[in-house]
Structure formats: C-alpha cells, structure tokens
Amino acid sequence: MRDIWIVAENPAWAAVLFAGAKAISSDAKIVAFVNGDEAAAKAAGSYGAAAAFAMPQPADGLWEGYAKPLAEKAKAETPALILVSASKRGRDLAAQVAAILDAPLFTDGKNVTVNGDAVTAQTMIYGGTGIKTATATATTALVTVGAKDYDPAPAGSAPGSVATLPYAATAAKVTGHQARPAASVNLPEAAKVVSVGRGFAEEAELAFARDLAAAIGAEVGCSRPIAEFFKWMPEECYVGISGQVLKPDLYLAVGISGQAQHLFGCRDAKCIVSINKDAECLMNQNADYYIVGDLKEVVPAIIKAAKG
Q1: Residue 224 is labelled as binding a ligand
Q2: Is 223 annotated as ligand-binding?
Q3: Residue 92: CB partners within 8 Å, gap ≥ 6?
Q4: What are phi and psi of 236, to 5 degrees?
Q5: Class of the domain covering 187-307
Q6: How far is the first Cα of the chain from the last one, in angstroms, to the nearest whole number?
Q7: Is 261 assigned to a binding site?
Q8: Residue 89, annotated ligand binder?
Q9: Which of 117, 209, 270, 285 lies deepest, with the highest CB count within 10 Å?
Q10: Which pLDDT tens digit goes with each residue over 95-130?
C-alpha cells in the first residue's frame, strides 16, 4: 500500500493517528506532520514514522497557511490516505487541503479501509442518528480522526528524518491573542461524566449533580441549553455534535431528554445511564440502563450508596 500521512494537532494526537494508520495498513510507510517545532515533530514521529515534519504556526499567521504546501507535497508524493486531527483547526486544514487536491474528505470517519485507490469509511448523518458507509476512489483521500478513536500507539524509535514544512503566508493575519479563561473541566479525558439537562429546574439544583460527581469521581458536563441558553455552566462543558464529543467509561445523564445532537456527543461511551422522569424519553431509549424517577430523589440515593 502507498504511504499514509498523519497531520496532528499535537504529539499526543499523533499517537492516536499513528495507531489508526497501523490499523488501516500494517505495512504502509507513515509520514508524520505536527503543529509545533522540530522537537514536537520528533516526538510525533517517535511512534515509528519514516519521516516527521514540523508545522510551527507563525506569530502573525494561521495554521491554515500549511494547506497549500501540504497539498503540493501530496500532489507530488501521492499518499493513499491523510489522517488529520479532528480538532477545529484540523478540520479546517483538512477541508482546505481536500479542496486544493479535489480529493474526498471523510469527516470523523470510522472503520476506515483502503483497497487500492478505493477508501471506505463510516460517517455520522442526520445529527448522529444514522451511520453512512461511503466509498471514494481517488489518488489521495483525507479522513479526520477523533482524539479517542484509537488507543494511542506506544512510543518507539525516532523518525527516519525530521524537517520543517514550508509555510505559505495567507491574506489573513493574526493581529492579537486573547487568553481564554482556564477550563474548569477536561471532559474529553474524563473516565466518568455526570451530565445535566433541563430536568434541573434552577441553577441551585446543579449541586445534586456536583455532589454525585464528587461521590463517584466524575467530571460534570451538560446539555446545550444549560450552557448556551441558561448560562449555568461554561460552554466547554456542553456535550453534543457542536460541543464536546466524549468516549468515557461511564456517561450518567441526569434530566436530559436525549435529542439527536446531544446523543452524538455521548454515544461512544462504554456505558450510558439515564435518570429521567419520562420513561419514554430518547435518552432512556439510548441508555444501557435507566432509572425513571425524580432526580431530587434518585440522585441522593445514588450518592448515599456510592459513599457506602
């Protein structure tokens, strides 16, 4: 099989992309590209890459400035597949490279296979309620890959070579930076998540969820209305197709109806538990286990049991 390229937001994501590349083809040569300097490239290539390229972002430039150089290199070297981190910048970069190459792009593709020039992958449709399997035939195809789609590859030998990819300045310039407030949670890395929805009648009732999370060692997330409409929690806490997409061991949804856009963000959890007064709600229908009842009665009972 021809080469597989990985384009990573950071070296840790490179380990996931490298594992994905090996799952797709155990014998393809892998070339790594990473956001950062040559030290980051060396780290990203340490999983067994034949070569690694740094893609440092200039102080006044955008990471998308690498779209044209990356596409030109792909035209010359014709990799079979380019796996890109499914971050905001990664998706933007992947889309631009695909447009320049006139190549197919599978957004958040799963179960990727390559047979000659034919690439097949599964993607979500209809807000995450359906799965589409599609095949594209092209010299090079692109796939964006989530941070937890594959178990990270173990570090191995240093890459065969390390260099810096040329940068092509864009018309847009960065004129300043403003630091975001430090995130109070790191939902994508959490093994357990307690998530709250509109079943909570007022902000003060969120204490039930926080006490439950403390009792079981979980982080607290929420549905979109809690963060965007009521402003009860920061936006980085909301789970869904346009928010956080999680893959925890346990996802405990409390007072969440389970609309399609929310289910997209938690459907890959190993175990989903729902607590809701409505026995017929979508969250219950998509849960592994559910409890029908008033959260103000059910949650304290679970906390008591968890504390022994």
Answers
A1: yes
A2: yes
A3: 64
A4: -70, -5
A5: alpha beta
A6: 56
A7: yes
A8: no
A9: 209
A10: 999 999 999 999 999 999 999 999 999 998 876 668
